[in-house]
Design a protein that fits this description.
Order of helices and strands: HEHEHEHEHEHHHEEEE
Strand content: 15-25%
Shape: globular
Helix content: 40-55%
Distance between the termini: 23 Å
């Protein structure tokens, strides 16, 4: 619909960004992909990743697991025996934490890279997640002034640091406010036109412009877990 705009980048975009990051920032040309074949989020990121990475390097292993799986040793031993230089693991904390724990126990030292489903993995799996990477909407440790102001104000009011969803909600409200100012009007057509041409640079989750489908064109924050904390490794976008 022409009047729908999204503050959050799409999952397919996340998968593409991960491919750019593994290729250009980490410099890895051989990758194993490990995903949950029963989860739309995991499979969607895996497919988008493979499509973008195809022109950049080689997927040496394409491995799927089931939602009920708890023992990943055979899959991890296949990765260890391959010449994969990194693993793309799109999934949520509950499964990712178990996989990273088993990977560490198996002595796998190559980096794992995930999407925003990893957010919070350090709470229960800091040791296993140490040194690995994931895409997120923003990092609460980002030194940018607008991000530190947002984190400080939110924490003062709610007594906890804002997660990515809080940051996206904040940006959605202020992006709408910016569009209202640009339009100088509350007329629907004027507002839709202002949103379509919006260039909102002060967003916490990355400067926002919208494509023809109302999806944001923005940089994704790639985070590394360092000493159990989020450290900004890179900000990556796909043209």
């Amino acid at each position: 619909a022409p009047n729908v705009f999204r503050a959050c980048y799409t999952d397919s975009y996340q998968g593409e960004v991960a491919a750019v990051f593994i290729d250009e920032t980490l410099g890895k040309k051989k990758v194993a992909v490990l995903y949950n074949q029963e989860d739309a989020y995991s499979t969607g990121l895996a497919e988008a990743f493979k499509a973008e990475y195809a022109g950049r390097g080689t997927v040496v292993l394409d491995l799927a697991f089931a939602a009920a799986d708890t023992d990943f040793s055979s899959l991890l031993s296949q990765i260890a025996a391959s010449d994969a230089e990194a693993v793309f693991l799109p999934g949520y904390v509950a499964e990712v934490g178990v996989i990273l724990t088993q990977a560490k126990a198996a002595g796998l030292t190559i980096p794992f890279v995930g999407g925003d489903g990893w957010d919070g993995v350090e709470a229960d799996y800091a040791d296993a997640a140490e040194g690995h990477y994931f895409a997120n909407h923003y990092a609460k440790t980002d030194p940018a002034q607008n991000i530190q102001d947002f984190v400080a104000n939110f924490t003062a009011k709610y007594k906890e640091a804002p997660n990515a969803l809080a940051a996206l909600a904040y940006d959605a409200v202020y992006a709408m406010a910016a569009a209202l100012e640009d339009a100088g009007s509350t007329d629907a057509d004027d507002l839709i036109a202002a949103l379509a041409s919006l260039d909102y640079a002060d967003a916490v989750t990355g400067a926002i412009k919208f494509d023809a489908d109302g999806n944001p064109i923005k940089a994704v924050t790639m985070i590394q877990i360092v000493n159990g904390e989020h450290e900004v490794k890179a900000k990556v976008s796909v043209n």
